[in-house]
Specification:
By secondary structure, this protein is α/β, with parallel strands linked by helices. The chain has one domain (20-290): Thiamin diphosphate (ThDP)-binding fold, Pyr/PP domains (Rossmann fold), CATH 3.40.50. It has twelve helices and ten strands. The strands form two sheets. An eight-stranded mixed beta sheet has the order 4-1-5-6-8-7-9-10, sandwiched between helices. Strand 2 (61-62) and strand 3 form a beta hairpin. The termini are far apart.
């Protein structure tokens, strides 16, 4: 038998970040970029990234150039967690246990097309870090609704508004019994950073779900991504918490939650809502917070 094919080496001398020239391949105001930037800055060169088809795959690769200064695999929609599992075991077999194997994927590749592989990896408690950057649509293919799209939001495939509730992905993943699950938002980077650090110290399957707005799909000016994300958190539409070994903890609680209508008013995708529909969303948010310890 011939010698085994060597795994990609982990660069030690290159500065690890998304170079400005590559950032130009993403849409202006893309919420996935700060999510990727902080991941890159924090975990540094001791990381290998699996990225299924998504907006992030688009800005990560441009012809022969790559944004990531670490081993990077552009994978198919359906099975990024399976690819990450194989890479994890391959590194372990070579004694490279200090390498973080990370999936960086959108909501469509996570909760719809790729959910079977995701659930399987979580059920086996594979030692990988999975990050879902959630722009609440399948924007890589022109913004179709996904199971992560919020109720009543307008998309090309739901011209009357999404008729179903947003899938509660973090709690579904926590129900697999994995050691660490958390939500984050690109407007609250200190919270996101702390959760990445905790996740990096845990062995086993870890899942982070990061709100990463899309100005094109959501319908707001490109320079307001952070403002819109912050409004989601401050109105309670997006809750920041972590679940460690089954125990849930709120990591950021607004001192006084702003009305949900302020968040809705920032985006064209909710412009069709009536006052009654907005009040219904407010009621749902209030009930969710009352039910949370």
């Amino acid at each position: 038998m011939g010698r085994p094919t060597p795994l990609p080496t982990i660069p030690r001398s290159r500065r690890f970040s998304l170079p400005p020239v590559m950032k130009g391949t993403a849409c202006e105001g893309c919420g996935a970029l700060p999510a990727a930037d902080l991941l890159a800055d924090l975990l540094g060169p001791k990381m290998a990234v699996i990225c299924p088809a998504s907006c992030a795959a688009t800005f990560s690769l441009s012809y022969t150039n790559a944004s990531w200064a670490v081993p990077f695999v552009h994978w198919i929609f359906e099975s990024a967690p399976a690819a990450a599992t194989g890479l994890r075991h391959a590194y372990d077999a070579r004694g490279m246990r200090d390498v973080q194997v990370v999936c960086f994927a959108g909501d469509s590749g996570t909760l719809d097309i790729g959910f079977q592989a995701l659930s399987g990896a979580a059920s086996r408690n594979e030692n990988i870090l999975y990050i879902c950057y959630d722009n609440e649509v399948a924007m890589n293919t022109q913004g179709q609704a996904t199971s992560s799209s919020p109720a009543r939001a307008l998309t090309p495939t739901t011209p009357g508004g999404v008729p179903t509730l947003k899938k509660d992905a973090p709690r579904i993943m926590a129900a697999h019994g994995v050691p660490y699950v958390a939500t984050a938002a690109v407007s609250h980077l200190a919270d996101y950073r702390a959760k990445l650090k905790r996740a990096a110290r845990v062995r086993g399957f870890r899942y982070l779900h990061v709100l990463s707005p899309c100005p094109i799909a959501w319908g707001y000016p490109h320079n307001q991504t952070i403002e819109v994300t912050r409004a989601a958190v401050e109105t309670g539409m997006w809750m920041l918490y972590e679940i460690t070994d089954g125990r849930m903890k709120i990591t950021y609680r607004p001192k006084r939650r702003r009305p949900v209508r302020e968040y809705l008013a920032l985006q064209r995708r909710f412009a069709h809502l009536s006052r009654r529909e907005a009040q219904s969303l407010q009621k749902r948010v209030d009930e969710s917070w009352r039910a949370t310890p």
